[in-house]
Specification:
Strand order of the largest sheet: 1-3-2
Structural class: mainly alpha
Radius of gyration: 22 Å
Number of strands: 3
Shape: globular
Number of helices: 7
Strand content: 5-15%
C-alpha cells in the first residue's frame, strides 16, 4: 500500500477499544462490523456486475475493456491517444493496444489532424457507431434489470451515496488529519 493511502486510512485503523483516551476517535464493534459488511457487499456487487457484463458483451465479440474504451470514445471522438489515455487514467500502451485491435476490427479509425499532420486523432468508424448503438441498448436493459428491485428514489439515493464514497476514495478526496 502507498504511504499516502495508509495515512488516509489511519483514522479508521485507530484503536477501537472503548478504554481509549477521549481524544482518540473510536467506533463500536457493531459499527466496525457494519463497515466491513458494507465493504464486502460493495465488492461482491461490483464483482458480480463485472461477470454479468462480460457475458453481456460476449455476443458482441467484445470485452469489458474494449466496450469501456468505445463508450468513452463515443463521448470524446477525435482525441489524441495520449489525451484519451489521460482521460481514462490508463497507461498509454494499454490504451494503444486496445485501440489498435479496435482499428483492426474496423471499429475506430485514426486520422491526421488537419492543423498538424504529425498528430493522429481517433474516431469511431461507421461500424463503431453501430456497435455503440447496440451496446447502449443492451446496457440499458442490463442496468434496468440489475436495478429493478429499487424504486426511483432508492436508485437516486444509491447514486448519491456511491458518488460520496467515490469522491472520498479519489486522490485528494480524503483530507488526512
Amino acid at each position: 500500500m502507498s504511504d499516502r493511502y495508509t495515512r488516509s486510512l489511519a483514522p479508521m485503523m485507530r484503536n477501537t477499544d472503548s478504554t481509549a483516551s477521549d481524544d482518540t476517535p473510536h467506533t463500536s464493534d457493531d459499527e466496525s462490523r457494519d463497515a466491513v459488511r458494507l465493504g464486502f457487499l460493495i465488492h461482491d456487487v461490483a464483482r458480480m456486475r463485472r461477470a454479468a457484463y462480460d457475458q453481456l458483451v460476449k455476443p458482441l465479440n467484445s470485452t469489458r475493456s474494449r466496450s469501456w474504451v468505445m463508450a468513452h470514445l463515443s463521448r470524446y471522438d477525435g482525441m489524441t491517444q495520449v489525451d484519451f489515455a489521460n482521460l481514462l487514467n490508463a497507461g498509454r500502451s494499454s490504451v494503444g493496444a486496445v485501440l489498435k485491435q479496435l482499428e483492426v476490427d474496423g471499429l475506430v479509425e485514426r486520422r491526421s489532424d488537419p492543423a498538424d499532420k504529425r498528430v493522429r486523432r481517433i474516431y469511431l468508424s461507421h461500424r463503431g457507431r453501430a456497435f455503440i448503438e447496440k451496446l447502449n441498448q443492451q446496457e440499458g436493459a442490463f442496468n434496468r434489470y440489475s436495478l429493478m428491485a429499487l424504486s426511483a428514489t432508492e436508485r437516486n439515493e444509491l447514486a448519491r451515496l456511491l458518488t460520496l464514497i467515490k469522491k472520498t476514495l479519489q486522490p485528494g478526496g480524503y483530507a488526512v488529519p
